[in-house]
Please model this.
Amino acid sequence: MDQLAGLAESFEGHRGHLRRVAYRMLGSRTEAEDAVQEAWLRLSRADTSGVDNLGGWLTTVVARVCLDQLRSRKSRREEPLGAHEPEPLVRRAPGDDPEQELLLADSLGLALLVVLEALTPAERVAFVLHDMFDLPFDEIAPIVGRTPTAARQLASRARRRVQGAPVAPAVDRIRQRQVVDAFLAASRAGDFAALLALLDPEVVLRADAVTVAMGAAAEVRGAEAVAQTLSGRARAAQPALVAGGVGLVWAPGGVPRVAFGFTLTNGKVRAIDLIADAEQLGRMELVILND
Model:
């Protein structure tokens, strides 16, 4: 095995951790993946012969890349990307229902990301690295360009802001699940009237290119047309967490083939997105829920 192949293998062993670090700093799965890829590019060009702790070295690189992105975002006064895919940030207590825990954890993750957006870039990096990943302040200090004492103060200030911030109203995942369950039951039963009652009058059904190649229409608009399209058509689908919300997935043999992303407005289905592109499905957090 040559040196680059060995580095690639070692890097893959750290990829999951690096992705979690970057996601909590940036709040965007796409930007997090970009930061991790940048870390690999820097690793592939670096002389690591003197690196004793590759995981720590990579975490530092990812943190610096994320800090640069956060500062760039602030300087451009841009809003963060809205399509977050929150990861669970709480642990289940003994006796809790696993499915309800998944829904609750997802909502808490989104609420925390909203609070983190109010921090300065340096505060966010210091808080995430120390409070979420237990990195000592003497390692955080050079990343944010401060002394260890100043880095501690950054994290402390961020902690106070996080703890004192009002919890933003999280998306009601339980209500989402109720609507998706009702939609699935109506679709399986071919109950046109029940489907119609769940759909917003202006609902749109969109399909990606792969789903279209499988026989779906690229776009269908209006409650009646969407109800006619989906009536009796989702018999094999299962409820799932899809891109941070409750949706459906068709996964024959446990392999996701089509994901159904739902957008709800005032308790009704406003949009349904059908995703069958294998690469996109592979990047998505898909968790099948009990049917």
Remarks:
- The chain has a mean pLDDT of 81.
- The longest strand covers residues 199-207.
